[in-house]
Amino acid sequence: MTPAYQLQCIDCHATYDPAEIIYTCPSCGGLLEVVYDLPSIEIDFHRSGECRSVWKYRALLPVDIEPVTIQEGGTPLYRLRRLFREIDANSRSREIFVKHEGLNPTGSFKDRGMTVGVSKAIELGMRTVACASTGNTSASLATYAARAGIPAVVLLPGGKVALGKVAQALIHGAKVLNIRGNFDEALKLVRQVCDEYGFYLLNSINPFRLEGQKTIAFEIADELGWEVPDRVILPVGNAGNISAIYKGFKELKSCGITDSIPKMTGIQAEGARPVVDAIDRGLEAIEPERKPETIATAIRIGDPVNAAKALRAIRESGGLAISVTDEEIIDAQRDLASLEGIGVEPASAASVAGMRRLIAEGLIDADERIVCVTTGHILKDPTEVVDVCAKPTWVDADIEAVKKAVFG
Ligand SMILES: *Cc1c(COP(=O)(O)O)cnc(C)c1O
Ligand SMILES: [Zn+2]
Q1: What's the CA-to-centroid distance between 285 and ligand 2, angstroms?
Q2: Which residue ranges make up each domain of the chain?
Q3: Is the CB of residue 275 less than 8 Å from the CB of residue 301?
Q4: Per-residue confidence (pLDDT) for residue 16, from 0 to 100
Q5: CA of 377 relative to ligand 1 center, distance in Å
Q6: Does any ligand 1 atom lie closer than 6 A to the CB of residue 376?
Q7: pLDDT beneath 70: ranges in the chain
Q8: Helix (H, G, I), strand (E, B), or coil: what is residue 219?
Q9: Residue 19 CA to chain centroid, in angstroms?
């Protein structure tokens, strides 16, 4: 049986058997993506009764075995209210939503990629999975590898990964290496290790992993009654997620399920903004930032591997790319938490910080329907939270002291 999907190079368009273990085009080195023979696939996403989750959309997922799953996806899409009034008092027609990916099983959207990626690893007969990670990828890979019963090896930029994420990778049983170097260096190393030892690489250069992440687009459209928002705003690190979500919206449109594509809008941190620079300067490719720096460690990446896909997603969709300061990120994180009850880690708050800036500068229309993706949960990075918040007040275990502290 010919599979209904293949791997295809985004540059030279050569196609490859999806059972080949390749991460880039053997002929030109370009990035690969999974392409489907859409007319031959029966798609019935409207089926009643089935809850939203990654596997609801399995007709458009490249996995042919029972998946390794712990119920990913189905995350809430919240309409902003108090924060909305604060940042957008003048607009009556604008609608702002937050898709809170921090409510996935391990606390980040990476689970959508890993349920597909680890399932694919099993289907392909791979015995060990590996990744480099700013934290969440390692937490998620360790979890799904545990579920599948195979070993995971993860390389972290030592000392630069939030505490909660390291804890997850450790307790789920991954082999955790702290590299004396940054994420970009860790990724180069893990690619060599995978080539040499036949480990299955599950960074977002892996095209199957991105297929899981495209279900964010499916869920957003599904929840909006198969309409698409005007704009989707999200943080950009290694640039896989923005590429995946764009692909998801394109597929829905190709299938005739929806009729437009949102303007894909990527937000980076001021100290790590190679994609923003490339968009600003009209470059064909990014120029890597050698010393990326930001409090938002999940997007502390100077040489995003999926840049070529992300630049296309932003340009083809008529989107934007801007950067925000660490201060703006912290403010947005605090406001989301204190005005909306949505607790996210710093990188995730970059999406809302970016939206706030775009609205203030009048760069987006007043009647847009906007979805901000918040990528990870607040508990991922407790150290940062405690650092930026007011400290608890110490009081004696005495009622007068407590009264004084509360009212005084
Ligand atoms: C991985 C991650 C990102 C960046 O996603 P990319 O696909 O690498 O651009 C942003 N926020 C959080 C919380 C993440 O874990
Ligand atoms: Zn190629």
Answers
A1: 16
A2: 1-41, 77-107+210-388
A3: no
A4: 98
A5: 12
A6: yes
A7: 1-3, 48, 88-92
A8: helix
A9: 25
